[in-house]
Amino acid sequence: MSSASSVSLLPSPPPPPPRRPGRPTVYSPSEKKGKKSGEENGSVKDIYIKEQIERWMFLRETLNVFSHAEVANFLLDLCDK
Q: What pTM was computed for the model?
């Protein structure tokens, strides 16, 4: 009676998004590992001190410095003595 046809009644999938121009980025396994862990490649900049923030800010005002890096540097130098 009827022959089997290969016509699908499902809608076709949307086309893929257009590719960005330029050379694709390729990382070696060691570079990929470095990207995952900022601590290993030295790019960590945030330190959470929570309850000690009031003491930190007081020390910053006492030292009359504007940057947190200067406070950290002072404390590290103090530990080196």
A: 0.45
